[in-house]
TrEMBL record:
GO molecular function terms attached to this record: metal ion binding; phosphatase activity; protein carboxyl O-methyltransferase activity
Family, similarity comment: Belongs to the damage-control phosphatase family. Sugar phosphate phosphatase III subfamily.
Name the record gives this protein: Sugar phosphate phosphatase
Recorded catalytic activity of this chain's protein: L-glutamyl-[protein] + S-adenosyl-L-methionine = [protein]-L-glutamate 5-O-methyl ester + S-adenosyl-L-homocysteine; beta-D-fructose 1-phosphate + H2O = D-fructose + phosphate; beta-D-fructose 6-phosphate = dihydroxyacetone + D-glyceraldehyde 3-phosphate
Transferase listed as a keyword: yes
Superkingdom of origin: Eukaryota
Cofactor: Mn(2+); Ni(2+)
One GO term describing the cellular component: nucleus
Pfam families per UniProt: ARMT1-like_dom
Annotated InterPro entries: ARMT-1-like_metal-bd_sf, ARMT1, ARMT1-like_metal-bd
Amino acid sequence: MEVQGTFPPLSLSAKFEGSFAYLTVRDRLPTILTKVVDSLHRNKENFFKEYGKEGIQAEKRAISFLSKLRNELQTDKPVLLLTDNAEDTEAWNEYMGRQQELMEDGQPVSWFKSPWLYVECYMYRRIQEALYMNPPMDNFDGFKEGKTQSFFESQQAIKCLCTYLQELITNMENMTEMQLRENFLKLLQVSLWGNKCDLSISAGQDNSQRSSPIDSLPDLQRFILVDDSNMVWSTLVAAQGSGSAGKKHARVDIVLDNAGFELVTDLVLADFLVSAGLAKQIRFHGKSIPWFVSDVTKQDFEWTIMQTTAANHKWMSASGVQWKHFIKDGTWSYHDHPFWTMPHEFCDMALDAADLYSTLQGSDLILFKGDLNYRKLTGDRKWEHTVLFDRALRGFQPAPLCSLRTLKADVQVGLQPGQAEKLNSQDPHWMTNAKYAVVQFSSPHRER
Ligand code: F6P
Ligand code: MG
């Protein structure tokens, strides 16, 4: 809860014993580290084949680095400065200085005492440090196998979705604006619920989509706690006339979350936006290093399009071929600014990543996928549930934006009075079990 008079409210942290942050740091993060160690072990033979003895030595050193890291975490040791010399090392170390200033009585920044958002991001960056420090392992993605598996286990749902998309495209010319709107709203919801399928919340356990994503929508509607989809639609429509002489040129940015089924839902939505003439350009934003188990990297993005193209299913491969064209002719592009794998709240972006902020300002609509992006949008703080989304953004308003998120962390704003109390009595885990979702919109041009 937002403590009266404290603005911004306190950060979520494992220092609040029994909280979801506490349980994550205590139980889930060590499990994730163990899985990365297992994955390195499993790939021993491959390292040997590729790099010979040097590969085996590097694998051993990386494993011992990660085991030490797990021990530091479990015994609440002070967090350490990064020692690799990567593009973002200095920024990480500088940010740790800021965290130090926030500590009471000069206590050191540590796993169970500092903000959850910071320490969780820091863990993924330390995994990367283990690889950077042990070449030739620096390109290894310890989460790759899980992401690949999640894509293959969702094949049925992916085929359904691609078939649905290709039918829509065939009938697109005869569609009224009303029908276009209806179909847009459906695919927006498919992309929303695609966010159920991440592998971080399940600590790497299978979490794929098996049923038809379109058929499930009506049953899921009542679990959407805030639904601003109409404003998203109006924003897209308004962007149509904004070019010179009413020429359509709308640009949509999608800040991606997870690979596997969720990424396919995002690609399908992006295809629909372009094919329906609602967007001329789509910019996808992904991660430059493996992140939160299942987040999309450039390699995942390219691999997914390649697999879709190569599928032994007419409509799935037709979709993949189309997506390849979009990339080739520049209609779609992939970007991975280092800020997306920093621990900052997004309200820091204008100062700490001014180039990214100004790029986003050129967008007509930014879609932020998933829970971690929501945590960063709202700063991962103890907000009252009825605080307005705009207020929780604390000035982060590069362009009209919308968060598409299933709830997996105990931060939620923008609810109606009484709504959270009702949910608490019906389902005590409503904020963390990914059963509920929000489509939450904010615009710099919106009347408050
Ligand atoms: O605690 C669950 C968690 O690890 C959160 O830290 C994070 O917000 C979420 O999983 C990842 O979810 P998503 O993939 O939707 O960002
Ligand atoms: Mg994720």
